[in-house]
Amino acid sequence: MNWDLSQWCPLIDDRCFLQWLIKVPSEQEQLRARQISAQQINKIEELWKTNPDANLEDLEKPGVDDEPQPVGLKYEDAYQYQNIFAPLIKLEADYDKMMKESQSKDNLTVRWDIGLNKKQEDNELRLVPGDELRLRYSGDAAHPAWQSVGHVIKLTAQEEVALELRASQEVPVDVTHGLSVDFVWKSTSFDRMQTAMKTFAVDETSVSGYIYHHLLGHEVEMQMVRNTVPRRFGAPGLPELNASQVFAVKSVLQKPVNLIQGPPGKGKTVTSAAIVYHMAKQGQGQVLVCAPSNVAVDQLAEKISVTGLKVVRLCAKSREAVSSPVEHLTLHYQVRHLDTSEKSEQATEG
């Protein structure tokens, strides 16, 4: 075989395969062929992602061609809002489930380390701490089939993945090759979204009237929050705010709904921490801070903590064993060290 790259030629010319590779059908053959549109081609290719054996007849089946209702800028009421967004969340959940479950890995090499906390390790997978996996072995003459579910607790520099398994009988610790891993999909976040929309639709007291109409895109008169505006908008332990950050903090403290936008690295986290600091100092109760990812929550918790506020970082049970830069702020850590803190205070007073 000639590997001289200068002699290589493209297989496609003018958006067509070369004739010596694929014969161009004659006019008579084209007349006998089944005519399909570009739209049908796109749909069958999309269907092949979930059903590799699908054919054009499958496109005619009920439900295949159903399109969700487009979202609007305004909605008549919460029921219409739910009827449009609920199917979209269902589609997103189905797609997320398909992507997770399609990432199964076979023929893995496994190293077993049993420590005092009976942690066991699995490697050769690129994952995120907190992910739930199912480790399984199909069995052989000396070992029965086995499987166990666990959570990823850390990633090592050697690209190993530490997996903490739940208690299981007859763990094949002498087997290090030929195991498989499946991603365990959880619908929790999608279930919460569906529940929130249902509550929004049936419970008029779930949100204030002002926020209700804002979410539905209705024109509402601007409301102002009765707060004491601080003289200084910065917060202890945080960098000084620039003019745009000061404006953002002032706006949030005076209005019930706000949107702060900006490119990465422009100080949105510092601004958010300053906002939380001043809201907490208003003395109207505790402040709940949410973010779309665990990393974002950790960063916010760390910034808010340096202002001197008491911060409690809530996390899922599955992430309690995952190392975090703000572990000392987590609820489970503070509960475990509650007795130690009380004894230290008593010793100091004594």
From TrEMBL:
One GO biological process term: regulation of gene expression
PROSITE patterns: UPF1_CH_RICH
Residues of the Upf1 domain: 1-51
One matching Pfam family: UPF1_Zn_bind
Record key words, sorted: ATP-binding, Cytoplasm, Helicase, Hydrolase, Metal-binding, Nucleotide-binding, Zinc, Zinc-finger
GO molecular function, one term: helicase activity
Localization per Swiss-Prot or TrEMBL: Cytoplasm
Record's GO cellular component terms: cytoplasm
This protein's record includes keyword GTP-binding: no
Family, per entry: Belongs to the DNA2/NAM7 helicase family.
PANTHER family for the chain: DNA2/NAM7 HELICASE FAMILY, REGULATOR OF NONSENSE TRANSCRIPTS 1
Name of the featured protein: Upf1 domain-containing protein
Organism: Solanum stoloniferum
